[in-house]
Design goal:
The structure holds two protein chains of two kinds.
Chain A (H helix, E strand, L loop, with lengths): L3 E4 L2 E4 L5 E7 L7 E6 L6 E5 L3 E2 L7 E6 L2 E6 L9 E6 L6 E2 L3 E5 L1
Parallel strand pairs in A: 2-11
Antiparallel strand pairs in A: 1-3, 3-8, 4-5, 4-9, 5-6, 7-8, 9-10, 9-11
Chain B lengths: L2 E5 L2 E3 L5 E8 L8 E6 L5 E7 L6 E3 L7 E6 L4 E6 L8 E8 L12 E4 L3 E5 L2
Parallel strand pairs in B: 2-11
Antiparallel strand pairs in B: 1-3, 3-8, 4-5, 4-9, 5-6, 7-8, 9-10, 9-11
Classes of the chains: A mainly beta, B mainly beta.
């Protein structure tokens, strides 16, 4: 199965700063990677799919890039509501798999 | 507005069974693939099972294969997960999730938006 490794585990930043989250796959997933945001007590929400396509209603400060095995989610300027957990997920191969998550916390 | 409402969770003993349901509204249910994804307390996300809009294409995680069965009733706009031979490690919140749409080849993306609020399954003696 495709193992997704997210780094760092925790990212401590201040509002207004730029956040860069990484997701590395154990084998190529071409561009078939998504990012989700999850806040405490809530269901995950899709942010980005197929590497760089923003889901409906997602602000432009969220962007995705990468291909093959290395992917990045960038939040250009953190808003207070962006402090949350972020997961990557691949659909290149069965079983579908998630990364372990990156927590973006307020510094 | 798309809504997904899960039900059927609860406390069950190891070896027992549960049937989860997910009632969908606000979209053309027959078009969209659906999945179940679970999250153990304090842990990350784990995909469990996926089913195409027609119900003909089905996949399972190895951890549940042979024990869980996904199905859908398009006339009732409802997704199901029959869970048998439950284990302690199946304890989790189970989310149903709607696929983003259809790819150019007609298959689901297998990315999900939105998700329901989940139903909690606890397997314990």
């Amino acid at each position: 199965e495709v193992v997704l490794t997210q780094s760092p585990a925790t990212l401590s930043l201040s509002p207004g700063e730029r956040a860069t989250l990484s997701c590395r796959a154990s084998q190529s997933v071409t561009r078939y990677l998504a990012w989700y945001q999850q806040k405490p007590g809530q269901a995950p929400r899709l942010l980005i799919y197929d590497t760089s396509n923003r889901a409906t209603g997602i602000p432009a400060r969220f962007s995705g890039s990468g291909s093959g095995t290395d992917f990045t989610l960038t939040i250009s300027s953190l808003e207070p509501e962006d402090f949350a957990l972020y997961y990557c997920q691949q659909r290149s191969d069965w079983p579908l798999t998630f990364g372990g998550g990156t927590k973006v916390e307020i510094k | 507005e798309v809504q997904l409402l899960e039900s059927g969770g609860g406390l069950v003993q190891p070896g027992g069974s549960l049937r989860l349901s997910c009632a969908a509204s606000g979209f053309t249910f027959t078009i969209y693939g659906m999945s179940w994804v679970r999250q153990a307390p304090g842990k990350g996300l784990e995909w469990v099972s996926a089913i195409s809009g027609s119900g003909t294409d089905i996949h399972y995680a190895d951890s549940v294969k042979g024990r869980f069965t996904i199905s859908r009733d398009n006339s009732k706009k409802t997704l199901y997960l029959q869970m048998n031979s439950l284990r302690v490690e199946d304890t989790a919140r189970y989310y149903c999730a709607k696929d983003v749409g259809l790819r150019d080849d007609g298959y689901p993306y297998n990315f999900w938006d939105p998700w329901g609020q989940g139903t909690l399954v606890t397997v314990s003696s």
